[in-house]
Design goal:
binds guanosine-5'-triphosphate; 207 residues; seven-stranded mixed sheet; GTP cyclohydrolase-2; 7 helices; binds zinc ion; 32% helix; Rossmann fold; alpha/beta
Amino acid sequence: MAQVRARVELNVGQRSHIPAEIVSFSGLKDGVEHVAVIFNQADQNQHTPLIRMHSECLTGDVFHSSRCDCGEQLNESIELMHQQGGILLYLRQEGRGIGLYNKIDAYVLQSQGMNTYEANNHLGFADDLREFSDAVLMLQALNIKQVRLMTNNPKKLNALRDAGIEVESVVGTHAHIKSGHVGNRAYLETKIQHGSHMLDIKKISKP
Ligand SMILES: Nc1nc2c(ncn2[C@@H]2O[C@H](COP(=O)(O)OP(=O)(O)OP(=O)(O)O)[C@@H](O)[C@H]2O)c(=O)[nH]1
Ligand SMILES: [Zn+2]
């Protein structure tokens, strides 16, 4: 595994010039470049860093599609890590691991009435293809042994615990609910019911 680092300044939401260090990893098991973004030198601080393992969502992260909450969660994480320090692992696991082409195919099925998991299954995929061993390797390479984990997904929590990384606490992200013709409320509710997500739908984000 190899890594390269450079300093960057990020401009997210209302905040500009957020200092960060971007680290790209190659030679990982997934065969793709996963990325770590380090805020306030969290890999060198004494206290327990905030960590988010964020799975790539081009439509949500870049274009802020109303179908999901990914871009808003990403920005929420960056803003909190700017305040408290932390490490964002940006994992190239588009569409819960099925890739963009298949995710868009799944969107077509969802428009016909399937939920996100049914659509994945209809296309011949399991509910969720992700596993987080590369994220563990990245944390180990960054010398992180104990974390405060930003997630509502119990699978991420268990993946770290099983790998021997201590999760001191879990910090839930807010519910970023979007209405409209193709909103994300059903997507979020399905994650809670079917995916055992700990998302508190009443903990709605401020606009
Ligand atoms: N297959 C499929 N994937 C989707 C759909 N909507 C979003 N995704 C993907 O779901 C993943 C969401 O990842 P995360 O932001 O890490 O969210 P999460 O696993 O729900 O966990 P937390 O946000 O940490 O609580 C991304 O890879 C998205 O591309 C969909 O309708 N179908
Ligand atoms: Zn998304």
